[in-house]
Structure formats: structure tokens, C-alpha cells
Amino acid sequence: MCGIVGYIGARRPVPILLEGLKRLEYRGYDSAGVATMNGSDSLFVCKRAGRVRELEHALPELPPKANVGIAHTRWATHGPPSDNNSHPHLSTDERIAVVHNGIIENHSTLRTMLIAEGVNFRSETDTEVVPHLIARFYEGDLQAAVKQALGLIQGTYGLVAMCVDEPDRLVVARNGSPIVLGVGDNEMFVASDAPALIAHTRQVVYLEDGEVAVLDANGFQTTDLSDRSITKAVNELDWEIEQISLGDFEHFMLKEIHEQPRSIQRGLRGRALPEFGDAKLGGLNLDRRAFFDIRRICLIACGTSLHAAMAASYLIEELARVPCSVEIASELRYRNPIVDANTLYFSVSQSGETADTLAAMREIRRKGGIVLGVVNVVGSTIARESDGGIYIRSGPEIAVASTKAFTSQLLALTLFAIKIGRMRDLSAEAGRNLLRALAEIPEQIEHLLAEQSDHLKAIAESISSAPYVLFLGRGGNFPAALEGALKLKEVSYIQCEGFAAAEMKHGPIALIGDGTPVIFISPMDHLHEKTLSNMEEVKARGGRVIAICNPGDNEVRNVADEFIEIPATHNMLTPFLSVIPLQLIAYFAALYLNLDVDKPRNLAKSVTVE
């Protein structure tokens, strides 16, 4: 859940490492550090708790000349944020340095063993056992020592090691935590995520679990832990540097909210077949017969992806008439799931590296199930290990609080629902109606962003001092309510919850007092009258009703204290629009409270640990 950057080549490494760390800040972190060679016989190390800027200020104006270096941003798991607990960590003789993502599950046992051998630990982290283990086995071959050390380690890791005695190489290893190599012109890079590399190279190599790579300025060699050579494909990144830059926006979260019209257009391009009322999804790797054999669909996800999956489940059941369940990946991975041949599984993850979702996917596949991925990042682990899937095409998402991934994931699964529905009970005309409505969504979002931003800013400021905010919706807008609550709590730290509107009277209504803000999603659909009744129940108890409704809905206007208009659309597609004002309310509330919108406390973008 933290960031790794490494470099070896002819250039001075520190500026490259710092630039890479800044591009990985969105992943979430609490400290940062860097290590390079200091002359020919020692390491230069600088570490600071806090932001990368704290590290940058602590560095000398002219760091040591070197051709190799490693750097890291840490998200605390073992030991609080501090200079000592920051990476890189060193061996006792300070000749080996390591940066590491993941968790060493048997670190306590290894620490006890190393202390008995005379090792003095400087930190409370699990990672520090790694450089000490490497030093324990080091006999002039860093790669061999790393492999021997990894043989004793239980847990997950993406790590990079360097050694004073081998100043012309880096050793990289992966097990359960993403690592990508960047291939340059007589230089090599390594990072935990591609944005750290894109300013320098588009040629990347993704390591798989159990692989170890040795890097020098001329290239890389990859083997497994048994020393068998592995040939790796070099992939081309299709991102542009502008996509990971702020441009004219103050924050990435706001930029990504505004990017949703374009990301939805990209997700539709080449996939919507309006003349047939159908969809084309070439990456599913399912023949036509397989679609008829599907008796059940299961969507597996966490966080925002879970809410997108929940919203999609309503569409899948309605359009395809196939039972669709949604599983929390972190719970599924520790159950003994019943897997059958007629169930189609989807792993839904923006990063494609979410540890819980990946573990659940592997368990399903181990039991013989077919698992398709719905991911954003090309070359990610879920994309590589799944049996097929759909890229959501939303482009890089930098802000920790996910926004455009929600609508892009929902779109991908909506297209799947149309495709399987057309092979079953969905008529061509019904499919055409849905696709026409989907094609209008980007322009409707643009209109909503242009017309409602100032109004939403005022609403956000008015609720920013509330001790509690409730979000309510019905049908497919229940997951949108959950997502609205998640966004607000993620970036503003206001206590809030989302519920199915009818469930309010089964407990949460006790929390409603004089002036409690309650945000209803109430489009003019078949549940409109039911939602109005729920609003009346809130009003009767002194709650402040803020309603998201369609233009001309006088019934809602007469009940609500404030209302937010969203364009009318197909009743099954309302979550594409209802989630937009909820994202903006969260953004403006955090802004009003003077909080770090793009890097909320305690959170990380890519959750690669349990």
C-alpha cells in the first residue's frame, strides 16, 4: 500500500527518485526515505516522517553523486510513522538497504532469531528483518542472498535491495505486492506503480509472484526462486503524462469527477451496438454456448468497486434474468465458498491489485470457477490472472477517493448485462433504448457539473459541521447512497452512513434529530412514492431533507428542505447521474474543512495488504 521507486543508470538518481515518489503520493503514505551510494564504500540514507516535501527539505542541496538509488513512501502497518520506521531499512553493517511493500507475517519469529544472533534492530517494522536476513546470507552475491532470505519469509512483498559491494545492480522481488520494471536507454527503473515511470519510459515489464529480477544499466534478467530463467515480455504504456497531471484543476479528485463524461465515452466506444440493441465485449473469452450455461453471476469487490458491483447487480438481474449476488472480497476469501460450473464470477477492482479481491479470485479459480476481471489498469495482476474480462478505460485515477472508476465499472457491467440479456429475454428495442440512454449520459453529466456545482458547494458547507449525515436510496440508488456516504467519510471525516431507504425505520431512524442532514436519492421511478413516504418520516422527526430528484418533481420539492436536480434518464441508469452530486458534496465539504482532499488520512489508493 506504499510506494517504491528505484533507478540505475548514468543520471543522478535522487531527483528521479523524488519525482517518482511525488507521482506515487496518491497511493497514501505517512513517511518517506531515499538511499543511494555515498562514494564507493558506504550508503547515503535520508528518511523522514510526513510528506515527501519533508524528505526533500531534509536532503542536502547536492546529494552524493551516484548511479543507483532506491526510495519509498510508507503506509504504517507495524510501528507508528517515524523517521526510524521509515524505509529504506539497513543491515547492521549498513551495507545493504531494502525498500519493501507488503507484510512479513512471521517477522516476530525472524526478529527473535536474529536478535539471538546478535542483531540490533533500529525500528518497530516487520520490514527490517529483510536486510538483516540478506546480510546473514550474503557472500558476495546479492541475488543469491535475497533468494535465501525470501526462503525464510512468509507473507507478501514487493521489494528492492541494493548493496555497497555491488554498486552496479539492484535486486527486485515480488510476491503478492505489485512491482513494475521500466526499460530505458542504458538505464533501468523500478516502481510499485507505472505513474512513477511514465515521465522516463513507456517500456515496462510486470513481475509475477515468485519472480526475482536483477537490474543493471544495460537491462534486466529474471529468474524464479529456484534459479530458473524466465523470459519476460516488454509492454507499452498507453498513458500520457497529461493524464497524471492536474492541468487546470486544483485537485485530482475534482479533475477525475469532471473526467467522467470522457471516461464513459471511452468505455462505450466500439462496444455499444445501437443498431442491434446489443454490446460487444471481446475480452470475455466466452463462446456463445457458455452464455446459455450461466445460471448465476457473482460479483466480488471491495470499497467503491463493491458499490459499483451492487448497482450493476440490479441491472444484470433485470436485463438478463439471471440471479446475481455481490460478495465482499475480504469476507469471501476466508469462507469456504461453494463454487459451481454454472456460476460466472467477476473480480471488480480499479487497480487490479486489491489484495482481498485478488485472493478471493484465486480461491474461486483454485476450485475450478471461471473468473473474469473488471479492472482499469492494463497489465495488473487481476487482469493477467483472470480468465478474461473488461477493461473499464477510465484512464489513470490518482486521487485516493475513487470517483470515475465507479461510473466506468458500472458502465462495463451494464454493457455485460445488455449483452447477456440480448442472448436471453431482452428485446432489441429494449436494448436500443438502454444504449440510447447510455449515450446521453456523458452530456447529462457535463450539464450537471456546469449547472449544479455552486449549489452543491453551498450544501456541502451547510453539512460540514454536522455530527452525522445519513444517505438513503432505493433499488440501484441504494448502492449510490452507500457510495455517497463512503466518499464523504473518506475525504471530510464526517460520520455518515448509507442505507436502503426502507431500512431507515428498522434502526437508523433513532439517529435522526433536529436538523440531522438526510440526503435522499429520489428519481421519478417505480419506487418514487415509497421514497416520498420515507422523506415524510424523516421530516416528522425534525430531520433536514436534501433530495436528489428529477426536474419538475413538485412532490419532492414540497417535502424537501433543499433539492438537487439531476437530468432524467432510463430508470435503471439513474446511479450514473445520482452519484455525481454526492461526489461533489464530499469534495466541497473537505475543501471547506481545509483538508487534504487527494490524500486523506490513513487511506491508501491501492490496498495491497490485508
Task: Describe, in short, the structure shown.
The chain is an alpha/beta fold.
Topology:
Blueprint: E1 3-8, H1 13-23, E2 31-37, E3 43-49, H2 52-58, E4 68-74, E5 89-90, E6 96-101, H3 107-116, H4 129-137, H5 142-150, E7 157-163, E8 166-175, E9 180-183, E10 188-191, E11 203-206, E12 211-216, E13 219-224, E14 229-230, E15 235-236, H6 252-258, H7 260-268, E16 272-273, E17 278-279, H8 288-293, E18 296-301, H9 303-320, E19 324-328, H10 329-332, E20 343-349, H11 355-366, E21 370-375, H12 381-385, E22 389-391, H13 404-422, H14 428-463, E23 469-473, H15 477-492, E24 496-500, E25 517-521, H16 528-540, E26 544-549, H17 554-559, E27 562-565, H18 574-592
Parallel strand pairs: 18-19, 18-20, 20-21, 21-22, 23-24, 23-25, 25-26, 26-27
Antiparallel strand pairs: 1-4, 1-10, 2-3, 2-4, 5-6, 6-7, 7-8, 8-12, 9-10, 9-11, 11-15, 12-13, 13-14, 16-17
* Cross-sheet strand order for the largest sheet: 3-2-4-1-10-9-11-15
* Estimated share of beta-strand residues: 15-25%
What's the CATH topology label of the largest domain?
Glutamine Phosphoribosylpyrophosphate, subunit 1, domain 1
The parts where pLDDT drops under 50 for at least 5 residues are: none
Shape: globular
Helix content: 25-40%
How is the biggest beta sheet arranged? Answer: 8 strands, antiparallel
Question: How does this model look, in words?
Answer:
The protein has 610 residues and is α/β, with parallel strands linked by helices. Helix content is 35%, strand content 22%. It folds into 3 domains: 3-243, Glutamine Phosphoribosylpyrophosphate, subunit 1, domain 1, CATH 3.60.20.10; 246-426, Rossmann fold (3-Layer(aba) Sandwich), CATH 3.40.50; 444-596, 3-Layer(aba) Sandwich (Rossmann fold). The protein is built from 18 helices and 27 strands. It has an 8-stranded antiparallel sheet, with helices on one face. The termini are close together.
